[in-house]
Amino acid sequence: MAIVNRLTVDGRDYFLPDPVSELKGKILDAIRAGGGYVNVPPLRGGPGIDILFSPGMPVTWSQIEVPDVAPSASDDGATADDGYDV
User: Fold this and answer.
1) What value does the CA radius of gyration of the chain take, rounded to a whole number of Å?
2) Bridge-based pairing state of the strands 12-16 and 2-9
C-alpha cells in the first residue's frame, strides 16, 4: 500500500505524495506571516498550483492508503480460461 496525502483547503482537495513535512511548514509560515502564496506540488508531474493561505482559512490534512498497483484500463476481468470449451 502507498500513502497519499490529502490537503483540503477551503473545501477543495489536493492529493500529494510523501513527504509533506516541508510543505506543511511553508503553509504554516505563510499563515503566521498573515497570509501568502505557497506552491502545492501535483501528485504526478507538472508545475503545481499556487494557493493563497491566510489566517482563518480552513485547512485539513489526511492520509489515504491506496494499492501500489492499479488495474490497467484494458483489464476487463476476463481470464485466459473463460469457461468456454473449444
Assistant:
1) 20
2) antiparallel
The per-residue pLDDT for range 2-42, each reduced to its tens digit, is 888 999 998 999 998 788 999 999 999 999 999 999 999 88
Of 23, 70, 69, 74, which Cα lies nearest the Cα of 49? Answer: 23
Q: How sure is the predictor about 77, in pLDDT bands with cuts at 50, 70 and 90?
A: low
Q: How far is CA 86 from the centre of its chain?
A: 47
The answer to whether 24 and 41 are in contact (CB under 8 A) is no
CB atoms within 10 A of CB 32: 10
Instruction: Report the alpha-carbon distance of residue 78 to residue 31 in Å, rounded.
Output: 52
Question: 45: which 3 cell numbers?
Answer: 508531474
